[in-house]
User: Which sequence fits this backbone?
């Protein structure tokens, strides 16, 4: 029996698969101060929109100076009792919070996607589980601080102001709150302007678990709100994640005040692929490195260094792999790249793309597929023929845009990777163990991912070298910013 | 006429199942009034041998799951223990002269102790392990690794808290455990299996035997598959039997020095230095060069 | 020829295919595709002519119920050599192919002469396809030339019949071994003569050893096929076998094939599922989608 060798191409594609879970959203979202939701004394509100549809989701309170003062006072009042609770008691509050987040996981994931634009697959499978893990992990440290700082008698820092960005809204909240609370501090959290909703829902969880009033306060608002908060004299510590530019502002602002400061800022992380790497898997790593979360990741592997002999192969495989990435409705479970968080950010990314072309790099943007008429979208792309001096090779774009350069020797790769004011993360791909250790040792980066990329865990310290900031979040080292050590 | 209750039969908990002792023996447990409150199984060395086999089979997956997952499982166990607060308080009071308040305090301390250990599963490595700055072009790091099957010999009292405090340490590090309950009050040990069964503890990870501790010392000490022994403080003659028997397969043996109120001190019971005897330090070298 | 593979990342990529959500129209289409890709299999010591006849009838008409459009037949029936004639009598002219295991399946631990005769007899009895096993003992002891040579001889013995080369990935254990065996098998088959699309398949397992087919193993094999296609323009077929019991799993595999090789490979000439109980689970899902009700196990005939 002969079998036809002409294959009949089947057209099989994925039908829409929207997550249909319904959630309710408060229309007027108040500030969370002293354990209660209160209207802003400023009487000022601003809208938050869904970047995939451009539709308004709700109004958010805009905290003014008086509101900020209330929040700080509430945190200050709550401090003595909270800090004197036994570690085990504090731990149990944090465990309750972790558990409650797990129970309400789907709701948080949908809200995060609607407010911020990231795919539901990511909120559901990455963000929310990590949020729960952070609370769970730091709950366990609350009564074990003596072992983290042997001989140094750790005590709380006090009232902590925590200002977070829009790229991982709830996750960034957990990175700040969990260690701070475990160490006996009280907090005022300032979510990013475009993504306040999940933090406010977290406040409901604090109420549900009976967290004492004032231990966590949430003040939403715009840039000024953050500034009032950082300036407030009763604040003992400021923790900030965001742009390097604002980080420097904060350093200047807090100069001479005695306030402790930790900063987690921008990056232009180098992802280095050697010829002896497992190349198919390295390509997966490139994709995780720069296209995960639409590239809105401070540690994104945005500079790719490819050992010359494998450049063609990598470009070929990357182009092919990009064609399987689906850009579109973030609430569709098959979406890989969601909406860009805001019009401003989209403009910024598009400006850098134009700049790359203007400076002479070659743009590869081959994803086809219809994008929704409304919303902020950017197809993933990469540049070849990039020179180290190009703007797209030096400045953080914060979008799904990769700059590819080559190298010939390990020393050259290392030196090019380190040639940046940033130093947040790096990736190293090779099958050779000794090379991994040596290159990792020489890279000026706070996180070195070897044969992997964008892996996060509450037990693993995260933070930058140089102008990517200082201080660590995660792991045992993540406790340090939140304690005062005796005699030091 | 008052309704007749359905009295509980107490079995041992081995390999995820509730089993009677193969020896068919039982021990009558008398309450403070002198009445027989229950019969518990008088565990035999064959039961112990069966438990070792179950614990051995369970070891690879228990030690290889992530610390985070182990922590969540132990936390769930604490949730289940909390849920049975009254039952355990009542069991404690059955043979021990304690007020309701004191019995509840013991249960609460047991729950908190378990929560403390749940928090160690993904942290003890950071406290006990390290990177070593050797004088050469090498990366060198020391990681603690679980040993295998550890037998826990609970103190006579506190019959619940002591049991939990001792089994928590080897357990949180990834060892599988066989616990031998108190002779004076085996009831909390007999109920503990139910807590394990309802809390995602995988089959064979925790096994609980009751009966006569002294009868089993020799067999515990000489079973070559057992990697470690964590016992409450014992009379010297018993310590000699255990330590001598342990020599043949070089078991890691530790006798706790805790007694009375010290059991209620979380820093004493849930110290990482109680975990340390039940992990092996593995030091790994790798050259660092392009 | 060693191709470096990172296991953790392969597993991560393989897992990502299982988060695709296949709904409504794409689900119905995917399920029907899956049905048409099954090599309905019986490989037991107690197989008898009547058992095989019954399986063949099921293969042609998986479900007797009314459904528009009508359901496809499965792709093939897979049996032991001694039952090829029986299968052929029922299936001849139906469009369902007869596949025979051979070469001393499943262990292959027999003299080469016996293994080759096994192939010739099955082909003479009418087998359209031969599922052979490679020599794992020789592979694991590094005698690659011997492994390759045997594959080449088997291909020659097949004549016009198509060849599926079972790597027995459960015994090879590491993904690097799977990749090496895949490349070796394809090269060995090609050394005999030109390969038309679909004439040669690589297959994961006999189904007699655990683990059988897994997503990571299949992904590595699909990548070997992809690289060979890019180099030579020849399309090698893929057959994961054993351990694929549910429609949900089958759809995950189709997603993986689609996103690794493209829709081109999703047809019976280039892709098969080696399975038996999968058939009824696929039918169950197809019928549930149409009627809206969950079905009972007795709603579908046993093979």
Assistant:
């Amino acid at each position: 029996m002969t079998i036809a060798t002409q294959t009949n191409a089947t057209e099989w594609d994925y039908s829409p698969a929207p997550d249909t879970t319904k959630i309710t959203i408060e229309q007027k979202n108040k500030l969370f101060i002293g354990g209660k939701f209160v209207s802003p004394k400023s009487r000022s509100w601003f809208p938050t929109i869904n970047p995939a549809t451009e539709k308004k989701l709700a109004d958010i309170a805009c905290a003014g100076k008086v509101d900020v003062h209330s929040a700080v006072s509430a945190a200050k009042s709550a401090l003595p009792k909270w800090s004197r609770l036994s570690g085990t008691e504090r731990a149990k509050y944090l465990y309750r919070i972790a558990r409650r987040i797990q129970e309400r996981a789907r709701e948080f994931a949908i809200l995060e996607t609607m407010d911020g634009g990231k795919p539901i697959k990511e909120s559901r499978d990455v963000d929310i589980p990590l949020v729960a893990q952070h609370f769970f992990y730091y709950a366990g440290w609350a009564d074990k601080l003596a072992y983290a700082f042997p001989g140094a008698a750790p005590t709380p820092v006090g009232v902590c102001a925590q200002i977070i960005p829009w790229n991982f809204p709830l996750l960034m909240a957990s990175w700040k709150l969990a260690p701070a609370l475990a160490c006996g501090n009280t907090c005022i959290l300032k979510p990013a302007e475009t993504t306040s909703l999940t933090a406010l829902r977290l406040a409901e969880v604090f109420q549900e678990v009976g967290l004492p009033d004032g231990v966590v306060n949430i003040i939403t608002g715009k840039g000024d709100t953050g500034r009032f908060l950082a300036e407030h004299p009763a604040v003992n510590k400021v923790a900030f994640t965001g742009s390097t530019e604002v980080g420097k502002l904060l350093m200047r602002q807090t100069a001479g005040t005695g306030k402790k400061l930790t900063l987690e800022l921008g990056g232009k992380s180098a992802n280095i692929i050697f010829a002896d790497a497992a190349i198919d898997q390295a390509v997966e790593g490139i994709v995780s490195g720069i296209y995960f979360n639409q590239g809105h990741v401070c540690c994104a592997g945005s500079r790719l260094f490819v050992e010359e002999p494998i450049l063609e192969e990598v470009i070929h495989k990357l182009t092919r792999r990009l064609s399987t990435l689906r850009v579109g409705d973030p609430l569709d479970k098959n979406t890989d790249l969601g909406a860009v968080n805001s019009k401003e950010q989209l403009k910024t990314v598009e400006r850098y793309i134009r700049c790359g072309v203007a400076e002479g790099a070659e743009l590869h943007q081959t994803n086809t597929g219809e994008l929704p008429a409304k919303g902020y979208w950017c197809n993933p792309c990469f540049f070849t023929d990039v020179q180290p001096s190009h703007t797209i090779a030096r400045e953080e774009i914060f979008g799904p845009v990769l700059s590819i350069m080559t190298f010939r020797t390990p020393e050259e790769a290392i030196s090019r990777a380190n040639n940046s004011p940033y130093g947040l993360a790096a990736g190293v791909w090779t099958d050779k163990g000794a090379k991994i250790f040596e290159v990792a040792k020489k890279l000026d980066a706070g996180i070195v991912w070897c044969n992997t990329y964008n892996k996060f865990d509450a037990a693993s310290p995260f933070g930058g070298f140089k102008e990517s900031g200082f201080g660590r979040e995660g792991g045992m080292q993540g406790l340090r910013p939140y304690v005062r050590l005796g005699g030091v | 006429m008052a309704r007749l209750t359905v009295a509980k039969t107490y079995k041992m908990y081995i390999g995820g199942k509730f089993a009677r002792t193969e020896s068919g023996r039982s021990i009558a447990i008398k309450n403070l009034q002198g009445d027989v409150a229950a019969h518990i199984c008088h565990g035999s060395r064959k039961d112990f041998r069966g438990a070792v086999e179950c614990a051995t089979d369970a070891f690879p997956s228990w030690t290889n799951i992530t610390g985070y997952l182990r922590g969540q499982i132990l936390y769930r166990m604490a949730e289940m223990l909390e849920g049975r607060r009254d039952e355990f308080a009542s069991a404690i009071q059955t043979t021990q002269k304690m007020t309701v308040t004191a019995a509840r305090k013991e249960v609460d301390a047991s729950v908190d102790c378990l929560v403390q250990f749940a928090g160690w599963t993904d942290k003890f490595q950071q406290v006990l392990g390290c990177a070593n700055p050797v004088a050469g072009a090498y990366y060198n790091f020391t990681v603690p690794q679980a040993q295998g099957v550890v037998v826990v010999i609970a103190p006579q009292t506190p019959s619940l808290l002591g049991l939990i405090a001792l089994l928590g340490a080897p357990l949180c590090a990834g060892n599988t455990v066989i616990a031998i309950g108190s002779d004076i009050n085996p009831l909390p040990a007999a109920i503990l299996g139910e807590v394990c069964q309802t809390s995602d503890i995988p089959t064979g990870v925790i096994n609980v035997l009751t009966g006569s501790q002294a009868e089993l010392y020799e067999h515990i000490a000489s079973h070559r598959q057992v990697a470690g022994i964590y016992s409450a403080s014992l009379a010297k003659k018993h310590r000699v039997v255990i330590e001598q028997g342990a020599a043949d397969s070089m078991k890691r043996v530790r006798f706790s020095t805790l007694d009375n109120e010290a059991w209620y001190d979380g820093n004493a019971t849930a110290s990482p230095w109680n975990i340390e005897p039940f992990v092996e330090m593995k030091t790994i070298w790798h050259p660092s060069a392009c | 020829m060693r191709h470096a593979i990172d296991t953790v990342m392969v597993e991560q990529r393989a897992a990502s295919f299982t988060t695709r959500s296949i709904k409504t129209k794409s689900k119905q289409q995917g399920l029907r595709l899956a049905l048409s890709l099954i090599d309905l299999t019986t490989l037991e010591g107690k197989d008898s002519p009547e058992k095989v006849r019954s399986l063949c009838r099921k293969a042609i008409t998986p479900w007797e119920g009314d459904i528009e459009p009508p359901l496809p037949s499965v792709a093939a029936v897979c049996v032991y050599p001694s039952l090829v004639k029986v299968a052929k009598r029922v299936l001849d002219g139906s469009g369902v192919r007869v596949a025979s295991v051979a070469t001393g399946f499943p262990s292959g631990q027999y003299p080469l002469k016996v293994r080759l005769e096994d192939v010739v007899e099955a082909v003479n009895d009418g087998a359209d396809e031969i599922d052979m096993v490679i020599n794992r003992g020789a592979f694991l002891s590094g005698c690659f030339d011997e492994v390759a040579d045997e594959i080449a001889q088997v291909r020659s013995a097949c004549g016009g019949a198509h060849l599926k080369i079972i790597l027995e990935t459960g015994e090879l254990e590491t993904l690097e071994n799977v990749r090496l065996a895949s490349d070796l098998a394809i090269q060995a088959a090609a050394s005999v003569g030109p390969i038309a699309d679909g004439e040669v398949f690589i297959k994961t397992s006999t189904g007699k050893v655990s683990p059988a087919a897994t997503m990571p193993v299949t992904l590595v094999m699909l990548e070997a096929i992809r690289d060979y296609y890019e180099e030579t323009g020849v399309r090698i077929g893929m057959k994961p076998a054993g351990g694929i019991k549910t429609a949900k799993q089958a759809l995950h595999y189709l997603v993986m094939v689609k996103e690794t090789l493209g829709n081109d490979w999703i047809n019976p000439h280039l892709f098969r599922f080696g399975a038996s109980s999968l058939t009824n689970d696929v039918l169950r899902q197809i019928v549930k989608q149409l009627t809206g009700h969950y079905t009972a196990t007795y709603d579908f005939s046993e093979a």
User: Anything to note?
Assistant: Chain B has a mean pLDDT of 96. The CA atoms of residues 15 and 239 of chain B lie 28 Å apart.
